[in-house]
Structure formats: structure tokens, C-alpha cells
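Example 3.2
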Amino acid sequence: MATPPLLTCKQCNYANEPERVYCHNCGAKLDRSLLPKEPAKATKESQDQARKLVRKLVNPAHGFFTNWHRALFNVVASAASIAALLQMARPPGGVPPMPTKEDLLGAPPLIEQIEDAEISPVPQAYRLAEPTINMYLASAVKPRTDSSEDYFKFERAFVNLGKDVIRITAQESAFGYPLYAGASYKLSISGGKLLAENVGGNVGRMPVHPMIMEYCGFAFQQLWNALTREKALLDRLQSVGVQPDAFTIITKPHA
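Structure, written as C-alpha cells:
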């Protein structure tokens, strides 16, 4: 370890410790300019340490800003998740009232009426209003009565008509709380088959992109299975049309 330099008094030549201001022997003020200057390395090292500290604070991969960004991302992600869940839990627009047993007694026999019209030698046109279709669906697509599905079960199906688009919604319940999953289609008849082009969907009030709907067919499988007869009937039609006020169908002339 290096010995610290001594500060010699000009008055009495007494060797003082370097930290003294006045001579320990005679009390004269010492000339501190005689002390050797500290190397610049120490100053440079202090500056380097300060730079490193600043870089650590502002570097996105370290320090305070990393935690700040992560915290902000977590807050935004949590808020988006909660908002999505709330939208999924809300009923979509246009949910018709649940029909009573008395209402179902007056449900129109649409399938039988259209099948009778198919034997006509000239095309027959039908304009089916949204309430009429929903009343028919309520009577034709009934929930299962299996007690094992009391906590999660299918309740009903209903449609909403728009400009060239029909939305079919399956209403289910989880522990008595209603849940809604809908799919929207553009319909047409081509080559003796009903073509349904998916243009989107929804879970509650949260919209679902058509590309995602391609993988959600399982959610409507029970509904499609219950409408097999109706699908076969639509395949035999000449044309279909969807407007906000009615679903229009035209039968083929019977040869």
C-alpha cells in the first residue's frame, strides 16, 4: 500500500499529514498546492460509472423501464380480457322474447306448407317474417330433457334478418345464465344446393371474424343436426332472399 505524501511546513519544516490545513508544529497555514494532484483516472472512472448507471435506467431491457412496460402491458391485457368477457356475457341485439307453451301451440307448420307448395306446377313464393320463423324454430328445435345437462344445456334457436344476411343464434344456458353464439350467412341456391357463405359471427355481443368462425362449427352442431329436414327442403328451392323484413323463398315448378 502506497504511503500518502506529507505536507512540509515552509516555516518550520515540520512534516504534516496531507489532510491538515495548518502546521501541527507552529500553526502556520500550509501551502496545499504542494500536494501532488490526484490522477485523472479516478475522475474518468466516476464518469464511466455514472454513464453505466444512466444506460441501465433507460435501457428497455433492464431497469425501471422494463418493469414499467411490463406493468402497462399487463394492465392493458387484463382490461382487454375483462372487456371481452363482459361483451361475451351480454346478450346480442335482437333477442326475441322466450315463447310460452301457449305460444308454441300456435306455431305455424312451415315445413308442411312449403312441402305442399312444391307440388304446384308453377313456382310459389313465400315471405316469412322474422317472428314467424322464430316461432317455428322454437317449436321444431326443442331442448333436451336429459337431467345430466341441467347445468349446461341448449335452450333454443332464433334468427335475425338483415340486408342479404341471416344470423342464426343458438341460445344455451350455463347454471341458468343465458349464453349466445351466433353465425351470420349470405344464402343462395346453386346447382340444386343451398349455399351458405359465412360472413362472421358473435359470442354474446363480441363479434367473431369469419376466419375464426370456420373453426367454431362444433358450437352449432346440435342445431344443424336438428335442422336436417329444413336444410333438405331449402336445397330443393328455386331461390332464397333475405331482407330485414322477411325471408323470401320461391319453390321450383313441379313437373
